[in-house]
Write a structure and sequence with these properties.
The chain has 24 helices and no strands. By secondary structure, it is mainly alpha-helical.
């Protein structure tokens, strides 16, 4: 039976010297197949065998043969994963000729492999080898080969080339610094490619490129492709691929948190602001997507606050408040948990960060007008949003709020008298926050 054949194969393999880990490709194929058998004992035996098998350098060419020749995608996938483990321990032990052969064979298989998951894992192995060889000045034909792949019109080939570029840049982007103009052009072309998987791969490559931006020319080149990045994310959202869009938001997180001088953001800030406000205010999108778009403004106040308060950007700040505050006033789902992030809660946090990190004169007058209008609304969620905003602003706009405390206290008392429980609750929170941050004036104003 199959179990006996497997045991016999393992026993036979154990008698081979180290130069011959398996007597034939067929035996290795059968042994790999045992990892797919729905039998715990068989899988355990196979796992134990391969733990020893990949300790032998000769396992690398043997597994490569299965990656090239096996007709079964699951076998090729397993061989690729095991080969990665073997390379991690033995790549330097192979001769120059053997390493050259393996490199070339993997590159050829990368373009020939029809299954995405196998192709992706081959790319992972190639990345491991590149991380080992490129810093030593080896594998001179790797980058030209990869560049040629990116010029393919085949979406599968173009996608894997961009993903491989992304992986290599993540681990050793400094090695590519001299090639930044070419990389920028490759990514720009990928962002505009018709196939969505290629655009997603280009977004991922963009993310890893941001980690290495230092010199003014590099930053300038990257800022040049930001409009293409924004458009690619918009297309992800239009195609209901919100996961890819949200993953790409990290590009902007990294840019804002970087040491890149503010002057590089002046020209792109209006477009970025409009982009993230569009997403944040779009109720047709998932809550997580909207929440993550609001995070952009929190990051801005933490890392680039001076950019928001420039006189030239007064209109931008007003635009942000006019969009974010109505989100504070949105109704929450009935089944939402107390600690669960929702757009109105994240929007309130944005207001709080503005109050804590930006000059009061740039924030509070506009917020007072918005809050006053909301408190006059018959909609209880508008009042809820207004009182939530007042509660969080008390922590950062203390002096300005003390100057108009009687008016604010009246709003809070109105909330306490409101027939809607949610409004009463947030009014209590506001009063508590006032009592903590607006002393001693709060005592006199409430008398």
């Amino acid at each position: 039976n199959d179990d006996r054949s497997f045991v016999q194969a393992i026993s036979a393999a154990s008698r081979f010297p180290i130069t011959r880990p398996m007597s034939s490709p067929q035996e290795l194929e059968a042994a790999l197949g045992q990892l797919l058998v729905p039998n715990t004992d068989v899988i355990r035996q196979a796992t134990q065998f391969f733990e020893e098998y990949i300790k032998q350098p000769q396992s690398i060419p043997a597994l490569l043969d299965r990656i090239q020749q096996s007709p079964q995608p699951p076998i090729r996938q397993l061989a690729t994963r095991l080969m990665a483990k073997s390379i991690a321990g033995h790549w330097g032990k192979l001769s120059n000729d053997d390493r050259s052969f393996v490199r070339q064979a993997l590159l050829e298989r990368l373009t020939a492999e029809p299954q995405y998951i196998v192709r992706h894992n081959i790319a992972h192995v190639i990345n491991m080898i590149a991380a080992h060889d490129l810093p030593k000045g080896q594998w001179d034909d790797f980058l030209p080969f990869l560049y040629n792949l990116t010029q393919s019109t085949n979406p599968d080939v173009k996608q894997i080339a961009l993903l491989l570029f992304a992986a290599v840049m993540e681990s050793m982007g400094d090695h590519f610094r001299q090639h930044f103009p070419v990389l920028q052009q490759i990514i720009h072309e990928g962002l505009g490619f018709p196939h969505p998987r290629v655009r997603s791969a280009a977004l991922r490559a963009s993310l890893h490129l941001t980690m290495w931006l230092e010199k003014p020319k590099e930053v300038q080149l990257f800022m040049g492709i930001l409009p293409s990045i924004i458009e690619a994310i918009r297309r992800c959202l239009a195609e209901s691929d919100e996961d890819a869009a949200v993953a790409a938001f990290e590009i902007f997180d990294d840019l804002i948190a970087s040491t890149i001088p503010n002057r590089h953001f002046v020209a792109v800030l209006p477009a970025l602001t409009q982009f993230f406000l569009e997403i944040a205010s779009n109720r047709a999108l998932l809550i997580n997507t909207r929440d993550r778009s609001l995070d952009f403004f929190i990051w801005m106040t933490k890392y680039k606050p001076k950019l928001l308060v420039r006189k030239q950007n007064a209109q931008i700040l007003s635009q942000i408040l006019s969009v974010v505050f109505p989100i504070c006033c949105e109704e929450e789902p009935d089944d939402v948990e107390d600690d669960e992030p929702t757009p109105n809660r994240i929007a309130t946090q944005v207001i709080g960060h503005f109050g804590a990190n930006l000059p009061t004169k740039t924030i509070f007058p506009a917020m007072l007008r918005l809050v006053t209008e909301a408190m006059a609304s018959p909609n209880p969620w508008h009042k809820h949003g207004a009182l939530s905003a007042l509660a969080i602003l008390a922590q950062g706009c203390t002096d300005a709020m003390k100057e108009c405390l009687p008016t604010l206290i009246q709003m809070v008392f109105a909330g306490l008298a409101d027939p809607v429980t949610k409004v009463k609750e947030v009014a209590c929170i506001a009063l508590s926050t006032f009592s903590e941050h607006l002393i001693p004036e709060i005592g006199r104003a409430s008398c």
